[in-house]
Amino acid sequence: MKLSDISLSHHYADLGDAFGTPIAPTPFAHPQLLHANPAVLRLLGIDAGEAANPAWAQLGSGARLFTGSKPLAMKYTGHQFGVYNPDLGDGRALLLGELESDGETWELHLKGAGKTPYSRFGDGRAVLRSTIREYLAGEALHGLGIPTTRALCIVGSDEPVTREKIETGAMLIRVARTHIRFGHFEYFFYTHQLEALRKLIAFTCARFLPESKDLDAAAQAEALLRFTIRKTAQMVAGWQAVGFAHGVMNTDNMSIIGDTFDYGPYGFLDDYEPEFICNHSDHTGRYAFEQQPGVALWNLNALAHALSAFVETEALRDCLEEFQPQLIDAYAERMRAKLGLATGEDGDRKLCADLLALLADGHVDYTLFFRALAHYRSERPPAALRELVPASHWEALDHWLDHYDQRLARENSDSRVRNRAMLGANPKFILRNYLAQRVIEAAERGDYQPLHTILALLQAPYDEHPEHEPWAAAPPESGKHLPISCSS
Ligand code: AMP
Ligand code: MG
């Protein structure tokens, strides 16, 4: 498909006035295409050659609309840091419409597109820094097999945007199966618009649970909650297994289909640090890394409450009880793969917990350790692992490896088979904060080469890429715990 062939539908915008406000984007005066994502072009069925089409600068900055586009600022509310905020909605992003490709429906959402009725005190813009961070994060999580929104392109500008300092504005076209958040349901519930709530449930079910088509509102709402619980459990299990901290798990940042959504001050763990807080505005650590499973359940409770308009409390409670076992199973499966275990045993949870306690206590780099573990063989001294662990913890490491050896022996693990499987479960490249910072600083100087390089690594994070070895390195001490502003 050529760019000129793209034709969007607008089923969400057609749901009615209650669902948002139609509004045109506010384009930049001098938009410049900084990157078009070949992988997402392919996903959408757009020809690779179109990446260089000069029309992107206009389309990606709202100066021109795709055929059929009906830009809409979606209305939603949500709980932010545990407190209900009735005034939310798309304050700087617009749903452009839906694109069908290969039987899938993809929504295009233009972020940084100017003020809307839901902008409150904001300027409606996004800065280049945060736009690059969102762009990279989507590719990083996708590359790691974790459901996420992605982005089609970034357009930069010379428009000054004031944050802690003056930066420049940028926009990205976010691509997702849906932009419906927990907060959409909360909005209709708290404003007593039950007919609109019913319509939203039916709309979401028609897209994602077609088998629930003929059910009544109560049964659809319950099926939807079960679906969201399952997807959210899988998403969070993925985060915990790769060491990703979202940073702002407010219910307006939770996708109803369990996509990782709305990237702000997120972070990947360098050292394994369960209490890691990536958002420096999160003074109580509500969204610390180890809190994420519990917060996800808190958020699902908020969603269930919104659905209590249709579903009995007892049934909601039954649904919510499914979360914890699903999360534990999904996490255990990912951690078994990381440890190279082909089967499951009762003691695996303890084996894994003992290792994580060792890594936390020794301040060991999480990603490097597991990648090195892929090359471990019982019959050889664990030199590569020792290099990553402080000498004070070598005895504990040897002790853990004894248990690991016994566990491997019990399933007759073949080291070559295991090595291959583990290299496909333990990434070499993750989106470390200090690397993201370097890419951003280069882009702010007009050098986009590091952005291209890191995207290619994040899109294939399990491959060796020997020419890019430095991008796999742990940060220098000064690159750990860089303060990440939540301004974006
Ligand atoms: P976030 O913290 O990015 O998830 O955003 C929370 C709410 O604030 C959403 O309703 C956003 O649309 C809105 N918002 C964030 N930044 C801006 C901005 N610069 N201008 C207008 N609205 C914004
Ligand atoms: Mg948000």
Number of domains: 3
Q: What Rg do the Cα atoms give?
A: 23 Å
Bound molecules: adenosine monophosphate, magnesium ion
Spell the H/E element sequence. Answer: EEHHEEEEEEHEEHHHEEHHHHHHHHHH
Global mean pLDDT: 97
Low-confidence stretches: none
Care to describe what's here?
With 488 residues, the chain is of the alpha+beta class. The chain folds into three domains: 3-176, no CATH class; 182-332, no CATH class; 341-423, no CATH class. 40% of the residues lie in helices and 13% in strands. It has 16 helices and twelve strands. Strands 2, 6, 7, 8, 9 and 10 form a six-stranded antiparallel β-sheet that branches. Strand 4 (78-80) and strand 5 form a beta hairpin. Helix 4 runs antiparallel to helix 5 and helix 6 (217-242) packs antiparallel against helix 7 (292-307). It starts with 19 loop residues before the first strand and ends in a 29-residue tail after the last helix. The model has no long low-confidence stretch (mean pLDDT 97). Residues 252-253, 262 line the site of magnesium ion.
